[in-house]
Amino acid sequence: MADQLNMGGLNLGQGGPGAGPRSYIPPHMRGKVGGPGMNGPPPPMNNDPTPAGANGLNKSAWSGNQAQDFDTRGGGNWGGQGGGPPRGGYGGGGGGNRPSFNPTAYGGGGGGQGGNNNSGGGGGGGGGYARGSGDGQWRDGKHVPGPANPRVERELFGTPDDPSKQHTGINFEKYDDIPVEATGHDVPEPVLSFTNPPLDDHLITNIALARYNMPTPVQKYSIPIVMGGRDLMACAQTGSGKTGGFLFPILSQAFLTGPSAIPANQGGGGFGRQRRAFPTSLILAPTRELASQIYDEARKFAYRSWVRPCVVYGGADIGSQLRQIERGCDLLVATPGRLVDLIERGRVSLCNIKYLILDEADRMLDMGFEPQIRRIVEGEDMPNVNDRQTLMFSATFPEYIQKLARDFLKDYVFLSVGRVGSTSENITQRVIEVHGKDDKDSFLIDLLENDKETGGLTLVFVETKRNADELSYFLQNRNLPATAIHGDRTQRERERALELFRTGRCPILVATAVAARGLDIPNVTHVINYDLPTDIDDYVHRIGRTGRAGNTGVATAFFNPRDNIGVAQSLLVLLQEAKQEIPSFLENSARAKSFGGGGGRGYRGGRGGGGGGRGGNRDFRRAPGGGSGFGGGGGGSYGGGGYSGGGGSNYGGGGGGGGGGYGGGGGGYSGGGGSYGNPGGQSWW
């Protein structure tokens, strides 16, 4: 069969006219001057997209594994090895024997410096178009975008009616009514649209492909703040566009200024397994799912650019992640633990970091990541606080996070969009009284049967891993398509479950808190709290999975007066502030708790309790003294010890025991006798 085998002009059966059989030519010698040619046309590439679901999760944009899959569906490397270092080439990704890693010389991460006959080497790179990473170049001080690829655009951006992609909803214009507070000196004016200036034209093109028509409130302010060189601490409701709030300005700056040279004392990192990555932007996230989600968004907005996003997180094969970053890494999304591992292995250097982003910073500290974060920021080779920009984004910023900002941020702008810790009015909240598991199961079946008729995705939250598995099996036995996700599932199982849910093939997802924070799953129309959390912040984040980007949603909570009385008071206030219907049984439970003394956990005042109140959306640099608002030792929750009494524990609360009401004698948001419009400090009850 050798005489029938032809590989792009390398015929193993004959050597040309009048020539005898050719000997084997090693890959690194093919295409050399005077050697056997590889100059024939490349084989036709299969640009047909893989049918939805054909390869399951591991070939999807959501999959962390796909982010490292360089051996299939590559966009080039003709004559080189699909997953190995670029060696000689024809077309995207091959491109010349590349010397030591040089961020100014690569086009999209795998390209190199021109292939044989200058036939395209240097572009493409790193897994080719199938991966969707940057395939543009930085050439002669200018950003040269790569060619458009319709298949990649469909993969990254979907179609206008694609339910797996998030688009703005019917209530998006209502975001203009959300109050915004920016504190700090010389705060830049907000932008009102995606225009140049301040954004780069190529980024604006990618934003249009994502069908984002106007910036959200957090984006209106964060874009000029970050592009003006300021540090930022931003608090915003879940689903308000925080990810775009930091990706847009840092990518725009990258497109305008180009890559940074590696410091001379770093030596470039060698080749292959000796190569180190020198990212210029680092995004830290608390969970694998959130890191993967941010990475997917970065791929969208870095499309056709020279910027190469990468993602690393625990629970996945570290070898494939190492191979990913070996091909170049400009923007790195990471969980703290895995990043520390890669730093210890000498595979990532932080000496080139221009932007440090901490997403869901309060969650990372709640999960015990503070030692790793401090090591990454203060104990390695990252530039100090004066030589980088640091951005902190989250839905809540309690006191201990704001104080951490003193160490990580400089002269920052504090941005509060909406009242943090609140819920979106796009979400209709309902509370159902239950008195045991049988009640919960009965109501749940009714709700899910109704959801089946209306369509959309339903997210059901439970407190324990065992409950998640048991409830999903229970629903499956009732012919309801359900799957589960929790911390004991393997990474592959978690990604598979998320993919089935996100694409609508399994429209019911039973989840523990592992999926409650940060995940942006489009088209979630209903969130059900089968088990109410003991902390109202967790409730806020759970129901924030619906009603995102101006879309509407429904949140249902099962309330057991015996088991959930501790959260009754704070849940009541949350519903009132969101202008929701208040059931009488919830008022009765809140009143009973008030008379019983000792408020529930309410809104956390920080790790270990204490302090508290709800000043998490205020700039602590402006906090008045006294009380236990910030740094005080008062009893957390509203009004210290409950609705009627206790020290003034809320933000800025002064005064002593005092006469009840929310915040006691001098509580409330800003002191001054009872809070929430209750100047006399009298009990509401």
UniProtKB/TrEMBL annotation:
By what name is this protein known? ATP-dependent RNA helicase DED1
**One Pfam short name:** Helicase_C
Asked whether the keyword Protein biosynthesis is assigned, the reply is yes
Q: What does this protein do?
A: ATP-binding RNA helicase involved in translation initiation. Remodels RNA in response to ADP and ATP concentrations by facilitating disruption, but also formation of RNA duplexes.
Q: Where is the composition biased (Gly residues)?
A: 10-19, 73-97, 106-135, 595-615
Motif Q motif: list the residue ranges: 192-220
Gene Ontology biological-process annotations: cytoplasmic translational initiation; negative regulation of cytoplasmic translational initiation in response to stress; regulatory ncRNA-mediated gene silencing
Name of the gene encoding the protein in the UniProt record: 20347553
Top-level lineage group: Eukaryota
Species of origin reads Gaeumannomyces tritici (strain R3-111a-1) (Wheat and barley take-all root rot fungus)
Q: Does the keyword Membrane apply?
A: no
Q: What CDD domains has UniProt attached to this entry?
A: DEADc_DDX3_DDX4, SF2_C_DEAD
Q: Name one GO molecular function term.
A: ATP binding
Cited Gene3D superfamilies? P-loop containing nucleotide triphosphate hydrolases
Every copy of the Helicase C-terminal domain together lies at 439-590
Xref: InterPro entries = DEAD/DEAH_box_helicase_dom (IPR011545), Ded1/Dbp1_DEADc (IPR044763), Helicase_ATP-bd (IPR014001), Helicase_C-like (IPR001650), P-loop_NTPase (IPR027417), RNA-helicase_DEAD-box_CS (IPR000629), RNA_helicase_DEAD_Q_motif (IPR014014)
Q: Which reaction does it catalyse?
A: ATP + H2O = ADP + phosphate + H(+)
> Composition bias, kind Polar residues: at what positions?
57-69
- Which UniProt keywords are present, listed alphabetically? ATP-binding, Helicase, Hydrolase, Initiation factor, Nucleotide-binding, Protein biosynthesis, RNA-binding
Question: Could you tell me the EC number(s) of this protein?
Answer: 3.6.4.13
- Where in this chain does the record put each DEAD-box RNA helicase Q domain? 192-220
Stated family: Belongs to the DEAD box helicase family. DDX3/DED1 subfamily.
Entry's Gene Ontology cellular component terms:
spliceosomal complex
Which residue intervals make up region (Disordered)?
1-170, 590-631, 662-685
Q: Where is the Helicase ATP-binding domain?
A: 223-415
